[in-house]
Design brief:
349 residues, alpha+beta, 6-stranded antiparallel sheet, 33% strand
Length: 349
């Protein structure tokens, strides 16, 4: 792409300031109508989420190409200017730093974020309009910078994951599932359940892989909030909630019930419990050799591996009152009543 004359002039003028001092750059430098603000020095990473890179003996040349690509790509939120052996490398990235790996390059990179006023530790996701906290992997971390409940982006192992954070007086909750109006179809395949679907603006499932990572990181208390169409609100809370990794098909360990919705998931349920069961979808999982409960239930869940299926399923077809096919909680309205809403959220003990 060719630079417009006014953009090129502006770029050349500000580059000497950006390159020479982070103090000057921290105020925000204009590239056309977009500001890039210096945030921090970071190590040179071989595996960060690079969308585009340009290398040159000319700092201005590599930065210019990189900045234009970043502005054009809505996934891009940051550029990194790195000194390498044969000159300068500029990378357009999603702004999330991944775990470092071995590399032949040494030194640091200067990281510049697009300046959209989400604060010093966050950037604005241009596709969703939500602040992403680049060093936060759960809502406890977000609360240190912003204590207003709402939608935020987390950095879970280098990927931006969007969730609702709920900040109560005594607890901080990371919402992993939200359903309330049937706007999102939960009849999905294994891959979609693994990485998540939907939107924090409507309904969503955060993804079983992300649930595993959150519980592994210590978010091991779960609260399930339910509402029927008569406005009756109930909850079930478990003080043990652990999801294994993909090798074990995200097997669930759940126990320690309290609440007023009744226990429909733990070992106490007997047959059709969720505790100890693998996650399954219509195309993958526990139905091998048994009943395809996910196909029957029209959504992925921790179904019993035989024929009993489950005494709970919060991923079924919205509004369906056919037995075992809706949003069901056996001890609250039974398996032939589809609930109006369900929220599943995690916190630290």
């Amino acid at each position: 792409m060719c630079f417009k004359k006014d953009v090129l002039i502006s770029f050349v003028v500000v580059m000497s300031c950006i390159i020479q001092t982070s103090r000057c750059a921290s105020a925000g430098k204009n590239f056309g109508n977009v500001n890039f603000s210096f945030r921090r020095n970071i190590p040179y990473y071989e595996r960060n989420a690079t969308l585009y890179s340009a290398s040159s003996t000319s700092v201005i040349a590599s930065y210019g190409r990189c900045a234009v690509k970043c502005i054009e790509d809505l996934r891009c939120h940051a550029i990194e200017l790195c000194e390498v052996n044969d000159g300068t490398e500029c990378r357009a990235t999603n702004g999330l730093v991944m775990t470092p790996t071995s590399t032949n390059q040494q030194g640091v990179c200067k990281q510049y974020f697009m300046d959209y006023s989400c604060g010093d530790e966050a950037f604005l996701d241009r596709r969703r309009g939500l602040c992403v906290f680049s060093f936060c992997s759960d809502c406890d971390c977000v609360r240190k910078y912003n204590a207003i409940s709402g939608g935020y982006g987390l950095n879970i192992d280098g990927s931006a994951v969007f969730v609702l954070c709920q900040f109560d007086t005594n607890h901080t909750w990371t919402v992993i599932q939200n359903r309330y109006n049937g706007s999102v179809d939960f009849d999905r395949d294994w891959k979609e359940y693994t990485y998540g679907f939907g939107s924090v603006d409507t309904e969503y499932w955060i993804g079983t892989e992300n649930i595993h990572r959150l519980t592994k990181a210590g978010l091991s208390t779960v609260r399930i909030e339910l509402e029927d169409f008569d406005g009756d609100h109930r909850f079930a809370e478990y003080n043990v909630f652990c999801v294994a990794n993909a090798t074990y098909y995200y097997r669930l360990n759940i126990s320690g019930y309290s609440g007023d919705a009744g226990d429909s998931m733990s070992e106490a349920v007997g047959d059709a419990k969720a505790d100890g069961e693998m996650f399954s979808t219509a195309d993958m999982g526990a139905h091998v050799g048994g009943k395809n409960c996910a196909l029957q239930g029209r959504g992925g869940w921790w179904y019993e591996a035989g024929t009993a299926c489950s005494k709970s399923s919060l991923t079924g077809e919205y509004g369906s009152n056919k037995r075992d096919k809706g949003i069901n909680w056996d001890t609250f309205r039974g398996m032939s009543y589809s609930l109006k809403s369900s929220v599943i959220k995690l916190r630290r003990p």
